[in-house]
Amino acid sequence: MAAMSHEPQTAAGAGALLAILRDGRARTRAELAQLTGLARSTVSQRLDALVQGRWVVPTDDAISSGGRPAAAFVFNESVRVVLAADLGATHARLAVLDLGMTVLAEQAVELPVDRGPEATLDDAVAVFGLMLDGLGRGLPDVCGVGVGLPGPVDHATGRPANPPIMPGWDGFPVREWIGHRVGAPVLVDNDVNIMALGEHRTVRPDTDHLILIKIGTGIGCGIISGRRLHRGAQGAAGDVGHIQVVSASEAVCRCGNIGCLEAVASGAAMAAALRAEGIDARGSRDVVALLRAGDTRAARLIRQAGREVGGVMAAIVNFFNPSTIVIGGDIAEAGEHILAGVREAIYSRSLPLATQHLTIRASRLGDRAGVIGAASMVLEHVLAPQSIDRSVAVDPAAPVGSQ
Amino acid sequence: MAAMSHEPQTAAGAGALLAILRDGRARTRAELAQLTGLARSTVSQRLDALVQGRWVVPTDDAISSGGRPAAAFVFNESVRVVLAADLGATHARLAVLDLGMTVLAEQAVELPVDRGPEATLDDAVAVFGLMLDGLGRGLPDVCGVGVGLPGPVDHATGRPANPPIMPGWDGFPVREWIGHRVGAPVLVDNDVNIMALGEHRTVRPDTDHLILIKIGTGIGCGIISGRRLHRGAQGAAGDVGHIQVVSASEAVCRCGNIGCLEAVASGAAMAAALRAEGIDARGSRDVVALLRAGDTRAARLIRQAGREVGGVMAAIVNFFNPSTIVIGGDIAEAGEHILAGVREAIYSRSLPLATQHLTIRASRLGDRAGVIGAASMVLEHVLAPQSIDRSVAVDPAAPVGSQ
Fold this sequence. Notes:
The structure is a homodimer. Chain A has helices spanning 14-21, 29-36, 40-52, 60-64, 117-135, 174-182, 191-202, 261-265, 267-276, 284-292, 296-320, 336-349, 352-355, 369-382, 385-392, and strands spanning 27-28, 56-58, 72-75, 81-87, 91-98, 103-110, 142-149, 153-154, 159-160, 186-190, 210-215, 219-225, 228-229, 324-328, 359-362. By secondary structure, chain A is α/β, with parallel strands linked by helices.
């Protein structure tokens, strides 16, 4: 058993107070003392440090009470901003958010990752700079950067691990490259992982086990187990696009195997099937546009894709017993046309105990799931109680705040 | 965000000291003070409480130093015992273990669960009584009871949830029934979950993500995600026996579906296939006995079962990216005959990133995995620092131990 490292002075330090205040409610010293079990003098001392760092502010109520010391405090969501980048194969969504997860600015830009990491990331940093300018903020306001990449990532190092569609990115130090330019901590993860995190943290934070399956050009999923991202031993968890479907399809996949889910149910596969029938469809969005225009061939393909996805998810429901399955990615825009097939296959092949309370629905965040998840990942890191304790550096010898 | 409940006096209480000492190394007061950041007087006070409760004892070294106060302390593994029961459909394994996970006594007994919970559990408690007598211990020595059941269990309440092969057990208060008779905390879980926990905690404690698949009369798996059991939303996770195999089998399963893994690769399915060829085989053990006797039909069936299991596990490897897959249950006794097929299918259908460091092997604990896992589950509960803090009830006003 590893030796335990205790720092008793941080057991309920400034960071723990901030964690309580992050729910957005104003609290008095007495409330904070009661919630933490700390002495009021200790609470005051730590609040002073947080006020000095502008992490919390006295509420208007308190200020209006005239002359007396502030009686209540509230988390200052605008003290810093977070930068979030959700990179796809050809396009990226970039956003600036406050600490309450409100999107202050966002931009969808053409940013093909096949130009290599240096050019792609430098362009992203340049766009971030313009967005910050537009908001009247600067790099010193940035408390962290979250990046989602369209391939496997070693989360511990932030480096891509043999990403199939990102030439030149294998092992590239994304974290250091951006961190050097922005001067703030950088966290990197797979794009589907951050989508799952975004849906979980904002739409279903009380759900223990959630799976987000993204159906776009390819197919992959992000997994929340016990409210935490399950990344797997090599960060490769969620690679469901290459699971063999049970429909005995002979479709050849780009991975070299036959009958992979991605080869029969992805946006790319459906667009190819439509092209084979003489219809102009380049990708996922065209398939959904055809559906909306009333094209019955597109509708049939999407419903069949739903059943194939559902067949694979039925196995995963038996294995994993999630509370919620969320369908995201461009094809999720097909709504009930894709969900119907998914539900049909899951209900017919999964066990009743695992499906009786199972929710299956389309993503609520849509295009924004990635940037919101990337920002959530950053906030959980930079607002962790230990990080705040370090940042405000409470001096035990400092005079106790007036009260 | 939920209010945080802090009890500063337990931040590094007696339980935290015990957690350090559980690694089996003797420690001095000075070492413990350094590891916890506590004052030596505080360490002494808490050690006194632990010595008084016999949770720790002065080491022989210290005693031999003659007259002076004990200088080093060690965890007392024999201060209490744990009772562990691993119940199968017709047989159970019962064991008494010390707090260092050494099996002090064990017994395999015929105990058909279809007689209902009262008769089954009363018989188990009676056998535990005899085993304790034989060891010269009594019920007051028991710090907890761990029970594994052959069906889904709601772990929070300890009640079986619609278990298919346990008539009369649905919703039965197993925890209260045993707790009332033994007078100690009772923890209940699915039999495969405790097997996975046993393998993880004793054989591979440093592995983050492990799957134990049990191939016996039925097929199921236990899942460790982030070193913790993943039980799923309804405690139904790991029910892989009813996942549809990709080999287009038309075998009808007892669940009513066709092509379930259990219907083609379980010990029951193989025994039925052998009987259809006129061979006397009633269950898993007969199939393995025939293999060992050189029966080529049994060997062929087992290798094919390995490929079917591997086909399903290949999908799970893509989804979950485990570090280790352990094969347990009676059919695991077939060793490489079953492992070869499992490996072949996983390597041919899973992605290289997920298989490059994947370990696939037979259970090291064999028949004992269940009772060792059940005991681990109990120890993690009763030896948790907060539990120990409550049990030793340190009195802050007590005189500080001599030093």
